[in-house]
Design brief:
Layout: E1 5-6, H1 12-22, E2 34-39, H2 41-51, H3 53-60, E3 69-75, H4 77-83, H5 104-122, E4 126-130, H6 136-142, E5 150-151, E6 154-160, H7 178-181
Length: 187
């Protein structure tokens, strides 16, 4: 995860290609309820202000604020409930969001974000996925996002500053050993 960016713009055609490839993640029932909202310029400034993330990063990791873009991954539960109300998917009660033990709109959005992070790395750019912890709905409303659509964090995206070095929890906490998290035949 990149924590220091250069303010260099990302070519629009490269960004479009990355997002097009990222959105091709698995989609339950091919519901395709994942959206990306790209923030730059005034909308990016408003993002930093409304969510409080700008103030927080300014004191903790100011290099993140140099990222020229933030991509908001969004999940539309109604795309899934509508899809699972169709004849070929009906019968499981999944036309009602409350009946989804695992809300695949969030799962699918997460997979699309992972695709984006891998693609950005492969193209030699930098990205940081982080959570939005304050006023997310207010921001989404200001940006015209329908009320039923959910945010699934944010991805700062841009050119990695050559001075960027690993930081954060992975530098202070060891990775758990594989036998602690990989289980064969039973827990």
């Amino acid at each position: 995860m990149t924590r220091r960016f250069e303010p260099t713009p990302v070519a629009p055609e490269l960004l479009d290609e990355l997002l097009d490839l990222a959105r091709r993640a698995p989609s339950a029932g091919f519901s395709q309820g994942v959206h990306f909202l790209v923030l730059a310029g005034d909308s990016l400034a408003r993002f930093w202000e409304v969510t409080g993330a700008g103030e927080w990063f300014a004191t903790k990791q100011p290099g993140i604020l140099q990222a020229p873009l933030v991509v908001l991954p969004l999940a539309d539960p109604t795309a899934y409930t509508a899809r699972y109300a169709e004849v070929d998917k009906a019968g499981h009660g999944l036309h009602d969001a409350a009946n989804w033990e695992v809300p695949f709109w969030l799962t699918d959005a997460s997979m699309a974000v992972q695709n984006l992070l891998l693609l950005v790395e492969e193209r030699g750019l930098g990205a940081l996925y982080f959570g939005i912890f304050r006023n997310a709905r207010q921001l989404l409303d200001e940006l015209g996002v329908p009320a039923h659509v959910l945010q699934v964090g944010a991805v700062a995206l841009g050119v990695r500053d050559p001075a960027d070095v690993p930081s954060g929890s992975p530098t202070t906490r060891p990775r758990r050993a594989a036998p602690e998290v990989v289980h064969h035949t039973h827990w």
